[in-house]
Specification:
By secondary structure, this protein is of the alpha/beta class. It binds S-adenosyl-L-homocysteine. The site of S-adenosyl-L-homocysteine has 16 residues, from loops.
Length: 467
């Protein structure tokens, strides 16, 4: 069975450093149930492919060695040597163990950079589940392709086989790509060759904790990974929820005690100016329905509900605590029917497609993108500009150049502990223009707050209009 990982870009032979595998010498690894080989079918500056070939020994499977099921004939006659299964996952974790941790010594910066990576997984058993391939891999930021086959070309009536050749491509950290494949192969294959117990819950949380807890197919993935053993599935879901709550509380503490940012911004009362500018932009584009994604405690929503022009106003945020505060501040529970009809709030992440984001004239994403890992930005871009596709998008983010004006921010520091990055005007505009071109929008920029001739304004805003 074959897994290939391809990197397209510059100096791509450095993939070998991230994988800790010499490209000039094919290597063999003896595993209990067969042998794994690593080699590079393609090696050039622009494109490098690493291959992991797994040669399962069917005799070992049958003779009570590792991987045998002691199930009589099954051990002799089965698809295991020819498909991507939990055997492949075990091989991945043995052969690419260091790459999965992301440690890369002299090449750490490269390891921490999302790369244009493609993985091809041959003969993935996927009986009747091929639609799930999109639903599982796309939210993780991949373009998904798969090839299906007839069970037997001589007997077309037998229909399609249960196997697919799957290719996923995205801009992603190598370690995340490997972890996704490692966890998700057995989700589709469903036949684990080893005993599934509590260790398996820990393994799932260790390798998927950060990307699974908000995944729209979390239940499907968890349940399949833990072969539908309810106590294990419940345990895993509960642990993920507890971890997510801790994160939300962190976020909430940041929101409740915005000491750094607010102290700094107080002088200019930047928040109010920002919301004023967003409302003005919404009025300018005559939006009647607005969704505020990453609405936090609902500051913008409170502005919008007061204005007649906005007939439908919705807030969404990943943090349930922020939403509870938003509801309190908007006094939704005590509101009259007309207000209730106008406003709604729901919990969701802008990294995953959500049908509820659709159907609004305008979407606002105010001071949110800087909270996202850069590796997840492309998922956000696709969710908002490709899937949701509102007529207008209004997006704001801090202008890093302006930070020197704030006494409390040291050079090269970010405005807020929770920010993952902050952009200069040039960085923001380059990103926004690329998105606009890619998804058929035009974009106009403006600054919010006092404008410094050299540094620009404290907040930068982009208004995207669908062509
Ligand atoms: N737009 C609000 C809040 C900004 S703070 C305002 O201007 O006041 C950033 C908000 O983004 C937080 O409420 C946080 O919970 C939310 N957020 C962070 N990651 C998110 C995600 N993946 N999906 C949705 N909201 C997210």
């Amino acid at each position: 069975m074959l897994l290939t990982i391809t990197w397209r870009g510059h100096n791509t032979t450095d993939l070998s450093f991230l994988l800790f595998k010499n490209p000039y010498r094919p290597q063999k690894f003896e595993l209990g149930y067969g042998d794994a080989y690593v080699f590079y079918p393609e090696l050039s500056d622009e494109k490098t492919t690493a291959a992991l070939l797994l040669d399962i020994n069917p005799v070992n499977l049958a003779r009570g060695k590792e991987g045998s099921s002691a199930a009589g004939l099954f051990d002799y006659v089965n698809d295991r040597p020819y498909v991507s299964s939990s055997f492949m996952s075990v091989a991945i974790s043995s052969v690419f163990r260091t790459a999965m941790t992301g440690r890369a010594d002299d090449h750490q910066e490269l390891s921490d950079t999302p790369l244009d990576l493609e993985a091809a997984i041959t003969m993935l058993p996927c009986r009747g589940d091929s639609a799930m391939l999109n639903r599982v891999f796309e939210p993780l930021g991949y373009y998904v392709r798969f090839e299906t086959f007839l069970t037997d070309e001589k007997f077309p009536d037998w229909g399609e086989s249960k196997y697919v050749n799957l290719t996923i491509r995205g801009k992603i950290l190598l370690r995340d790509l490997i972890k996704h494949i490692y966890i998700l192969i057995p989700v589709f294959d469903r036949q684990k060759h080893y005993w599934v117990g509590n260790d398996e819950v820990e393994k799932l949380l260790r390798n998927a904790g950060d990307w699974l807890s908000n995944h729209p197919e979390k239940s499907f993935i968890t349940s399949r990974y833990l072969i539908r053993l309810s106590p294990l599935v419940n345990n895993a879901i509960a642990k993920m929820a507890a971890a997510a709550d801790e994160n939300v509380i962190d976020e909430e503490e940041d929101a409740a005690d915005p000491a750094e940012t607010e102290k700094i911004e107080k002088k200019l009362n930047l928040n109010a100016k920002r919301l004023g500018s967003v409302v003005a932009a919404l009025k300018n584009c005559k939006a009647r329905s607005v969704i505020d994604i990453g609405c936090g405690e609902g500051n913008l929503l409170r502005f919008l509900v007061r204005e007649k022009q906005f007939e439908r106003v919705t807030g969404a945020d990943v943090s349930s605590l922020a939403l509870t505060r938003a509801k309190e501040k908007l006094r939704i529970d005590e509101a009259n029917d007309s207000l209730r009809e106008k406003v709604s709030i729901f919990q969701s992440s802008l990294l995953y497609k959500d049908i509820r984001f659709k159907g609004y004239d305008a979407a606002c994403v105010i001071e949110v993108i800087e909270h996202l890992d850069t590796a997840r930005l492309s998922a956000f871009e696709r969710v908002l500009f490709e899937f949701t596709k509102p007529r207008y998008v209004i997006l704001t983010t801090p202008n890093k150049e302006y930070n020197v004006k704030y006494e409390n921010i040291d050079e090269n520091k970010l405005r807020h502990g929770n920010h993952r990055f902050e952009w200069t005007r040039d960085e923001f505009q380059t990103w926004a223009r690329k998105i606009a071109d890619q998804y058929g929008y035009t974009v106009k920029f403006s600054g919010i707050g006092e404008i410094d001739d050299e540094l620009g304004a404290s907040t930068q805003m982009g208004v995207f209009t669908l062509c």
